[in-house]
Design brief:
Oligomer: single chain
Number of domains: 1
CATH architecture: 3-Layer(aba) Sandwich
Bound molecules: thiamine diphosphate, magnesium ion
Radius of gyration: 19 Å
CATH topology: Rossmann fold
Number of strands: 8
Helix content: 40-55%
Structural class: alpha/beta
CATH superfamily: Thiamin diphosphate (ThDP)-binding fold, Pyr/PP domains
CATH class: Alpha Beta
Distance between the termini: 51 Å
Strand content: 5-15%
Largest sheet: 6 strands, parallel
């Protein structure tokens, strides 16, 4: 599937996924210091969904995300220093230290908002698409959400509305099979594939195994072409897997809500970063040494970002009334 992606772009995809992994591993490492005073939902294991989709977007396309937002923010080129500062609650954070990990935003790259209430990214993206249509703009509005959002009424209302109004929305369902500890089979009809919901609203759709980022790139490019040609929404389902606990830096395998065989399959055999690494190893004998350089570069950037955040000031109490709407 990587055939139509140049070597240079394969390396960019690797860089972007690996950078997210290393940033989140650093967050996990430092979390027990209790200086980050907000919950963190890590995307370790799920990096390919954010990276594969964002790789195909233009800067002017607008992205809306959920509680698991770090990967979406970074893949859309959100500023790293501002993200780490936000997680530390500092005034230099991307929203001034008022929101933390689940409320990231960087308007300079059109990463519009992350909202932790399940399904909330969906009406925002659809509303934005309606506004873009009225203003005769060509941008795509992207909504990332988890499989639990399928159980929220708002998803169905929005899909209906986007379909009848011919809105340029890319719905991206990251299906990691779990809503906290509960498997999809206990929450949704066993025999109904998630993708089927799209056809009920006359929306085109595709399901992709997210262990191969090149398939996500090809599928997203196809979806964007369809959206632009038909002025209509598209629904992508990306099958993925969260490696860590639902919320926090640890593993929670001892709770036994997930099968060991399922864990092993996704973590040992279906890691998208490892798969792309293997492709690059096969393609270039220089790759292993390039990878070492990339790793050094990313780790340096991460240290700088954490130092920046740690040295930054907490927001002033004098400003607490600002940005408050009642
Ligand atoms: C409307 C609503 N109900 C419940 C919650 C509590 N909650 C936060 S995350 C989560 C699970 C989300 O699962 P999913 O959408 O599949 O995303 P994932 O965490 O698997 O990435 C729940 C139930 C919430 N944030 N919003
Ligand atoms: Mg889920």
């Amino acid at each position: 599937m990587e055939k139509n992606i140049s070597m240079n772009n394969l390396k960019k995809l690797f860089f972007s996924m690996y950078r997210i992994r290393l940033v989140e591993e650093e967050i996990a490492k430092r979390y027990s210091e209790q200086e980050m005073r907000c919950p963190v939902h890590l995307s370790i294991g799920q990096e390919s969904t954010a990276v594969g989709v964002s790789y195909c977007l233009k800067k002017s396309d607008k992205v809306y995300s959920s509680h698991r937002s770090h990967a979406h923010y970074l893949a859309k080129n959100g500023n790293l220093k501002s993200m780490i500062s936000e997680i530390y609650g500092k005034s230099t954070g991307c929203i001034g230290g008022r929101g933390g990990s689940m409320h990231l935003s960087d308007l300079s790259v059109n990463f519009m908002a992350s909202i932790p209430i399940i399904g909330s990214s969906i009406p925002l993206a659809v509303g934005n698409a309606l506004s873009e249509k009225i203003k005769k703009k060509k941008n795509i509005s992207v909504s990332f959400f988890g499989d639990a959002a399928i159980e929220e009424g708002i998803l169905h209302e929005c899909m209906n509305f986007a379909s009848i109004k011919n809105l340029k929305v890319l719905f991206v369902c990251e299906n990691n099979q779990y809503s906290i500890f509960t498997h999809l089979n206990e929450r949704q009809p066993k025999k109904r594939n998630i993708e089927k919901i799209a056809s009920a609203h006359s929306i085109a759709s595709k399901t992709i195994d997210a262990s191969d980022v090149t398939q996500i790139v090809n599928g997203t490019q196809e979806a964007l072409k369809y959206i632009k040609k038909n002025s209509a929404p598209f629904f992508l389902v990306l099958d993925t897997y969260r490696w860590k606990e639902h919320c926090g830096p640890m593993n929670d395998d001892h709770l036994n809500y997930r099968d060991k065989s399922e864990n092993d399959k996704w973590i040992k055999k279906k890691c998208a970063i490892k798969s792309l690494d293997n492709i690059l190893i096969k393609k270039s004998k220089y790759w292993p040494s390039e990878k070492i350089k990339i790793e050094k570069q990313i780790k340096k950037e991460i240290i700088i970002a954490f130092n920046f955040a740690l040295k930054s000031k907490l927001p002033s109490s004098k400003d607490s009334w600002r940005h408050v709407y009642a």
